[in-house]
Amino acid sequence: MNSISANWKDRSHQAVLNAIELDNEDRKLGSFLRTALRALWHRAATARRYAADRREFERLDDHTLRDLGISRDEFDSYWAESIGLAERSRRRVSD
């Protein structure tokens, strides 16, 4: 009887340890998935913002662009600077 209860105790202890180990693995997986989903969401939001800004920029006529001092092929550079993806390299003129 004593060896049966000791064996049961060892198996239950091992089952608890296995459950804790699985729980830790689940937490690691959950953390990884949350991080990956956040990154994916951020990339999608950035892509949507880029597309919307690009459409708005394309609506500007050449005269307006000339008044602003930029050309159509500079959009990507201006856009990257405006959201902090690139260092600001243009001289800023204040009012």
Beta-strand percent range: under 5%
The H/E string reads HHH
Counting H and I runs of at least 4 residues, what is the number of helices?
Answer: 3
Total strand count, please?
Answer: 0
- Biggest sheet: strands, sense, closure? none
Low-pLDDT stretches: none
**What's the pLDDT, averaged over the residues?**
79
Shape assignment: rod-shaped
Question: How does the helix and strand content classify structurally?
Answer: mainly alpha
Q: What is the helical fraction, as a range of percent? A: over 70%
Determine the oligomeric state from the structure. single chain
Instruction: Please compute the radius of gyration using only Cα atoms.
Output: 29 Å
Tally of discrete structural domains: 2
Could you describe the 3D structure shown?
There is one protein chain. By secondary structure, the protein is mainly α. The chain folds into 2 domains: 2-45; 60-95, no CATH class. Helix content is 77%, strand content 0%.
Quick rundown:
The chain contains 3 helices and no strands.
Provide the descriptors you would attach to this structure in a database record.
3 helices, mainly alpha, 2 domains, 77% helix, rod-shaped, 95 residues
